Amino acid sequence: MIFVNIYIFKTIRELLPAKTPLIFPLLKHPPEYFLTKKSTYVNVCMKWKKDPYYDSIESIHRSSELKSLISLKNCIARDPNGCIPISEVSKSGREFGLSIKVARFMRLHPSVFEEFVGPHYNLPWFRLTPKAVEIDREEKSVYEECKRDLRLRLKKFIMMSREKRLPLKIIQGLQWYLGLPDDFLENPESHLDGSFVFVEMEGGERGLAVDCGESFLSVLQKNAVKREVCRGEWNGFEAIPFPLFPSKGLRLKKKISDWLDEFQNLPYISPYEDFSHLNPESDVAEKRVVGVLHELLSLFVNHAAERKKLFTLKKYLGLPQKVHKAFERHPHIFYLSFRNKTCTAILKEAYKDKSAMEVHPLSRVRMKYIELMNQSPVILKLRRQNNRPFGEEIRKPDLDLDLDCEDEESSGVGKCSL
To answer: PORR domain spans which residues (predicted)?
Structure first.
C-alpha cells in the first residue's frame, strides 16, 4: 500500500521562500482524498465468461433490427395516405441501417408491413398492418405523455460532458438509446425547453448546451440514500460501492479480490461533478470512469449499447483512451455480449435488481414491436404451405406394420405378431 504523506507537502512549503507564490495551490490545503490510502496498480486481467442470461435478452440483441423497422414504419405513418410505393425507400437502405434490400426486409416482416399492388404500373406498395397501426398510436401517446422525462434524460446526458455541451451529431448517434423520437431535434420548439441552447462548437459544427443551475444525483447516489448507505450529504468524498453481480463460475484470484475491495472503498465522484483535479492515472479516476459508464447506461432504454458507440464520447465525457478496459476490469458491473458479431455493453444491475433502475417509458412499447415481429416467421411459413402447387401433397411414407404377418391366402393363418 502507498500512503500520500502530509509531511511531504509541509517540507516542500518550508523550502520555498515566504513570499514565493504557490505554484501548486494544493500544497497549502491538500484535499482529503490526497490523504487516503491508494492501492498500487494491479494488472487486472479477467477471462471473459459467457453468460447465457444476458445473451438471450431479446430487447437488446434485436435492437438494431427493431431500429430499422421503426424507421421504415415512421416513413409509412408520416404519409397522408398511410401507404408508400417501394420506390420511395428502395434506395435508402443505408439510412435505415440495412445490409439487405429494403423490399426484402419489409417482406420478411409481414406482421408489420402489408404488401399490395399499387394503382399505377402494378408496382408493389406497402402499408402498416392493423396491429402495427395500434402500436404506433400507443408509441405516439407515450412520447406525448413522457416528454418531460425524455427531456430530463437528454439534459443529464449533456450535463455529464466537460463543457455541458455536445455536438448534435453525437446526440443524434445515441438518440435511439436515449429513446428520443426521430424528429426530436428537428422540432426543438415542441420538444425542448428554455434550458437548452443551440451553440456553435469547434470546427463550425452545431451543438446543444444546457444552461441551468440544477444539480443532479446519479442513480448510484439515489440508491445509496434509499439503502441508507449514505445520509444524502454529498461532499465529494463518500465511498459509495457499486452493486456487484458476479456471473456463475467466475472466480477471482485473491490479489484481484483484494484490489476490488479497496476499489469499492475509494471516494465516488459523480458524473455531474467537476473532475479536472483528478490524476487520470489514479484509482479514484478509474472509479469515476466506471461511474460515468454506469450512469450513462442507466439512462438508456435497454440499459445497454454497442461499445463502439460509447467510444465516440471519450473526448466529451473525459474518458481515457483505453476506456474499454473499464468493461474488462469490472465484469461484476458490466457484461460484454458478442452476439450478432457486435460487442454490446450491458449494465448488470438493471437486470439483476430491477428496483434499482427507473423503467424507461418506451421499453414496453418496443417489446410490443418485438412480439409483433416474432409473428412474421409463422405467417411466412403458412404462406409457403398455402402456395404449394396444385396437386402436390405431403407424401407420407407407407408403413407396413404387419411385418411378421403371413398371407392368409397362402398359409391360411390369420395370426400376426407385432
So the answer is: 49-376
